[in-house]
Design a protein that fits this description.
The chain is mostly helical. It contains 18 helices and no strands. Helix 11 packs antiparallel against helix 12 and helix 13 runs antiparallel to helix 17. It is globular. The relative contact order is 0.14.
């Protein structure tokens, strides 16, 4: 009631602000600001160049500074930047504004991953992370409808200027909710009593992921660099982000290329966002129920592979509008990949510095993919965009294969963790209580204690290192989530 509404609001505003460029593309920003060649593509990519630059700074700051206060400053500033974008008259002005937008938006998702790990058990994290990621779809649908309404305004300002002003000022006003409502951590939450704060921390013991610490540990960074998982997460997020970056910037232009006018294009872009919300929640529900991520991720790669192949094969004649639009909507299954991958990576990392650094790695990968993605598209390649669609197709195929490799590696790591526990006199095979629901968690915990007794160990030895700020490699009780 206190944390999630603020998280959902901020992520909605972030996506709305970031997508404002794609809405303005339909209302002539390319012509009004005299963009040529790949300049429009660079307006999409420069946001992620800035995020790439700022990500290491943000990761260090998230360990050192209060999370909610750090987030407030960034939300306020990016709202100011979007508002000022309305004054840009040419490529240089737009590029500068988009660069600073990327700087101030860089910290949002890393903040929310840390907050999610700080408040919820691993079983609960999937649906909550998916909920704030689903705001991408809500923002896409609402933003399309807002742009449709604003497109009918005829005044002294251009439609693209009104869009930037409206969305930017809305963000400035809402930023103060973050300052007034969102706590920095469970122990600083004004709405919890002292006893409730203890419960809020203790219920996370089974996660074995540690809790907030204000000390940057270089040992965790070396652990990260030597961990093969790090490079798997980077590759998975890069392959996911590259198609996403192209579609988010060029989606409305792709639809326009099917033969629709500007206002129709904006309206037909709205269902893509609605499908994104449905798919994201459905994927999260299935993953939570089955306690498995990899089958869901693998399944989500298959429809976009088919949709991209169909768009490459079909022509662009007047009678093809409906078929092409249907194929484009099939690509929306790919939007469920990002929250699943975020959750998969965050649930398989422990130690505060390592968690923060891992978040930085996956967002660097996302930034790199989003930089490259729009560059595969060119406005002069309309309406086919063959190069962009081929690039997307290759990425989704590679992602499906790498998902299977990652699942096999995590299964191997669980066997290695079991061997460590056996060597230390603990039960090798235990149930991951953090992935169980409330009804079965207590039963699973009792079963684990019985297994410890059978091995001659005290039941209390399990999860005793949960709050020692150890990495997943250092804590033999940590179990990897497949």
């Amino acid at each position: 009631m206190w944390c999630m509404p603020v998280i959902l609001m901020v992520y909605f505003l972030q996506q709305l602000d970031k997508s404002s460029l794609s809405y303005t593309s339909v209302f002539g920003i390319v012509q009004e600001t005299h963009l040529v060649g790949s300049q429009y593509s660079w307006l999409g990519s420069i946001v992620y160049v800035a995020q790439l630059i700022w990500q290491p700074v943000s990761s260090y700051a998230l360990v050192k500074f209060p999370v909610a206060k750090w987030l407030f400053v960034h939300v306020l500033m990016w709202g100011v930047i979007v508002s000022c974008t309305a004054a840009a008259k040419d490529f240089k002005g737009l590029l500068a504004a988009r660069f600073f937008l990327g700087i101030f938006e860089a910290t949002v998702a890393p903040c929310f991953i840390i907050i999610t790990q700080m408040w919820w058990r691993r079983r609960e994290q999937t649906i909550r992370l998916s909920a704030w990621m689903a705001m991408n779809g809500v923002a896409s649908a609402v933003g399309s409808l807002l742009a449709y309404g604003i497109g009918h305004i005829h005044g002294s300002l251009k439609p693209y200027q009104v869009i930037f002003l409206f969305i930017g000022l809305l963000t400035v006003v809402c930023s103060f909710v973050v300052l007034l409502v969102l706590p920095d951590s469970p122990v600083k939450a004004r709405f919890l009593s002292h006893e409730e704060k203890i419960v809020a921390l203790e219920r996370l013991r089974a996660n074995n992921q540690g809790t907030e610490a204000k000390v940057w540990k270089w040992a965790h960074v070396w652990d990260l660099l030597l961990d093969p998982k790090t490079y798997l997460w980077f590759s998975l997020l890069f392959l996911c982000a590259l198609p996403s970056g192209g579609i988010s910037s060029f989606g409305p232009l792709i639809i326009k290329g099917f033969g629709f006018d500007p206002l129709q294009t904006i309206l037909f872009n709205a269902p893509f966002g609605i499908f994104q919300v449905i798919i994201t929640f459905a994927a999260a529900g299935i993953a939570t129920k089955t306690k498995l991520k990899w089958p869901v991720i693998f399944a989500l790669t298959l429809p976009p592979i088919g949709g991209a192949a169909a768009l490459l094969h079909l022509g662009r004649g007047p009678g093809m509008k409906n078929k092409l639009l249907g194929c484009y909507y099939v690509l929306s299954f790919s939007t469920g990949l990002q929250p699943m991958l975020y959750t998969w990576a965050s649930q398989n990392t422990a130690g505060h510095t390592k968690k923060t650094a891992t978040t930085a790695v996956i967002f660097i990968a996302q930034c790199a993919g989003n930089i490259v993605g729009p560059q595969l598209y060119r406005t002069n390649e309309a309406p086919y965009y063959h190069r962009g669609l081929i690039g997307n197709l290759v990425c989704w195929i590679a992602l499906s294969g790498l998902t299977l490799v990652t699942a096999a590696f995590l299964a191997l790591r669980n066997r290695q963790q079991a061997a460590k526990r056996r060597f230390l006199g603990k039960a090798a095979i235990i149930v991951d209580v953090s992935l169980e629901d409330t009804k079965t968690a207590a039963k699973a915990q009792a079963e684990n204690e019985q297994r410890e007794k059978a091995e001659g160990a005290e039941p209390a030895v399990l999860n005793t290192k949960a709050f020692d700020d150890l990495t997943d490699n250092q804590n033999e009780d940590f179990m990897y989530a497949l």
